[in-house]
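job 3f2a | input accepted
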Amino acid sequence: MPPPEVGVVTLKTESVTLQAELAGRTTASLISDLRPQVSGIIKARLFEEGSRVKAGQVLYQIDPAMYRAVLEEAKADLASAKASLEAARLKDERFAGLAKIEGVSKQEAEDARAAHELAAAAVGQKQAALEVARINLDYTAIKAPITGQIGKSQVTPGALVTANQSQPLATIRALDPIYVDVVEPSEARLKLRAQLGAGGMQAGSTRVKLKLPDGSVYAKDGTLEFSELAVDEATGMVTMRATFPNPDGMLLPGMYVRAVLDQAIDTAAILAPQQGITRDPRGNATAMVIGAGDKVEVRTLSADRAIGDRWLVTQGLSAGDRLIVEGLNKVGPGMPVKPAEIKPAAPAAAATDTPPAAAADTPPAASPKTPPAAPAKTPPAATTAPAAKASEH
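job 3f2a | predicted structure (393 res):
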């Protein structure tokens, strides 16, 4: 009886970008809570809620009447102090001359000089009081400290506000650019560092892609800015921040998103078709390859992550191995077979690190990409089960 014919794929090394898909939330790049710095009655609100405001733009007007009166009083006080200073100066000069001819006592001359200096200090105090009054009057016009989108107003004209109150009048957020804060398990970072240190891998880029809550991909790429230098003790996570351009305001603060990061590039990756991976009774991932003399060998392997309809194999298979992907139900270990090469699928450009649970809950994508001859030779259970089980690995 002739040996059974099986479909095989000859494995080879490929360059694959290893990606991680991490959950995160968007946050404004700048946030400013508007609070009054002086007390008074709001006379007018000078902006539209939800509009874009510019730094320095007047947003609220507090009744300035009292502060204007205080300013005028400060100006009058300064003028009075300057007049007193001039009188003290003249007296000081006159007594100094008389003291030389003993027209007045030395004590009187010294008192006149001290009064002159005291009057000069009083002028300085009045000048400072005038500046404070001018600043307080300016604070009656509440201005935007940053450029951004302003939210709803918490007060209306006629409301009484107090200096440095706890409740903000409104909040301004700068949305372009916008930040995305994501978290990653500290164990995953240690694993990546070990892989990079072992060689065979190159560090990835700082480019970040973003998946929106509806599953679509954000059109513009972001940049990974920094990684937190401490691990959250409660969650064991490390926070990372990426910056994304947001000119049209599509991204809003607080959105739940998923960021896809290029963590590393595996220059010698082994990608095995999912239909060639099965499980033994102990639950170990196995594969059948054709060894010497065209006989079947069973290999126990380790699959790191799914890449389309293939698995990234880290142990158990190597370049040049002929992996059986069709006719698995007709062969067993040690059996001679007749191999027939099958053209492999196009290599994947990137590998996303998807949690095993998520991969197991997702129906296998291998079936529609399998060559037409595969369904005829392999029962549906043999094609579907290995992918589901390998995803548990």
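job 3f2a | Helices lie at 65-100, 106-139, 186-197, 356-361, 366-369, 373-377, 380-390.
job 3f2a | closed
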